[in-house]
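Technical annex, item 7. During the second reporting period the consortium partners agreed on a shared format for inverse folding records so that results from different sites could be compared directly. Each record opens with the tokenized structure and is followed by the designed sequence. A conforming record, contributed by the partner at site C, is shown below for reference.
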């Protein structure tokens, strides 16, 4: 009987700590940072494809996309966008488009962009807006 009581107490303590950790995590916001490395010979093609992707979001008035691009001197381009749900991480920018025809168009534009890359990496960063 004492073993069962002790086991229940320990189980309650460990599950309580996990619950508190999950509750406090809702104050954080998430950003996706994608760093593209472009070969110098593909820079013009990459920038044209990037302009096409940007025009797509402006022309189709896609809401919720804030896609910032930073160019560095070493042919590295950093893109920052917000992440509302971790399920959207696999879909990337396609998660913001609901129309299947528009999604196919964006997929083609993203394929053109990705074909100019030497390599890329994706990092998720969390932050608290009131501390930024």
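Designed sequence (site C submission):
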């Amino acid at each position: 009987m004492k073993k069962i009581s002790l086991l229940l107490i320990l189980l309650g303590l460990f599950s309580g700590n996990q619950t508190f950790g999950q509750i406090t995590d809702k104050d954080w916001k998430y950003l996706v940072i994608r760093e593209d490395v472009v070969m110098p010979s593909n820079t013009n093609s990459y920038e044209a494809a990037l302009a096409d992707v940007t025009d797509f979001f402006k022309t189709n008035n896609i809401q919720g996309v804030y896609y910032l691009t930073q160019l560095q001197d070493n042919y590295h381009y950093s893109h920052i966008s917000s992440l509302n749900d971790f399920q959207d991480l696999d879909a990337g920018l396609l998660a913001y488009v609901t129309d299947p025809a528009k999604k196919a168009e964006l997929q083609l534009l993203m394929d053109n962009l990705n074909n100019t890359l030497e390599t890329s990496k994706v990092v998720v960063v969390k932050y608290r807006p009131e501390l930024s």
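The beta strands are 29-38, 68-71, 76-83, 117-127. Helices lie at 2-24, 43-59, 88-91, 100-114. All partners now use this format for quarterly exchanges.
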